[in-house]
Backbone:
């Protein structure tokens, strides 16, 4: 089941630019809480390389710089949350925050893409990505009006750097067991297969449907987190 979740998540991220974590993280957390978020971060660090191989020329380097700058302190806070805050509490918090952001964004014409919004999105992504493995929605919301290739390429570079950073920090705080790395390595196989079949979705979304897809995927990530935590509380 974990492999299937990664496969589907890779299809979504291959088309939209993010979404692997939102599909796979809840399932992997339910199957092996002790393996998260390390296992999903291994996959998060690998999938972007395939996107960049095809679309690296479309990276928004200026925006990426602001986002990475914001993510550095955010990831540290995320690591502290992993150590001291329960999975249920951090999951519900992230889910509610994303739903509020989607609701506000859907009613607005656009989200300004500037140094402040990019660094803020990077900061929030650092917290949520390190703590839960789901760091895409904040960045996706800021880039929702960009063209498909630019969204995918910029987020791919951001996610690669972010996942590598999160893995290092999780190792430093002793929250990265060897089993998590092994599981993540095994999940690379269904991830590659999912990316390979995502081509038709990319072509479809690039026809003017990227913004809607970004909002839907971001909202779905929040709902998935809420469902995951409700199930965890009942079992």
Residues:
């Amino acid at each position: 089941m974990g492999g299937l979740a990664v496969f589907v998540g890779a299809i979504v991220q291959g088309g939209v630019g993010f979404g692997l974590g939102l599909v796979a993280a809840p399932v992997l957390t339910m199957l092996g809480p002790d393996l998260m978020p390390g296992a999903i971060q291994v996959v998060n660090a690998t999938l972007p390389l395939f996107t960049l191989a095809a679309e690296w020329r479309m990276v928004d380097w200026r925006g990426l710089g602001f986002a990475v700058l914001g993510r550095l302190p955010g990831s540290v806070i995320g690591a502290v949350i992993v150590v001291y805050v329960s999975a249920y509490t951090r999951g519900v918090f992230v889910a509610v925050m994303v739903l509020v952001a989607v609701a506000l964004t859907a009613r607005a014409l656009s989200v300004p893409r500037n140094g402040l919004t990019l660094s803020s999105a990077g900061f929030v992504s650092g917290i949520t990505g390190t703590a839960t493995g789901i760091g895409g929605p904040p960045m996706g919301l800021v880039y929702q009006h960009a063209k498909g290739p630019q969204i995918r390429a910029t987020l791919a570079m951001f996610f690669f750097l972010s996942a590598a950073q999160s893995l290092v920090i999780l190792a430093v705080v002793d929250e990265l067991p060897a089993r998590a790395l092994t599981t993540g390595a095994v999940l690379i196989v269904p991830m590659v297969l999912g990316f390979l079949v995502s081509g038709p979705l990319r072509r479809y979304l690039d026809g003017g449907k990227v913004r809607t897809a970004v909002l839907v995927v971001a909202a779905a990530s929040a709902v998935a987190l809420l469902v995951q935590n409700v199930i965890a509380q009942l079992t």
Q: What stands out?
A: The chain has a mean pLDDT of 82. Residues 1 and 78 are 27 Å apart (CA to CA).
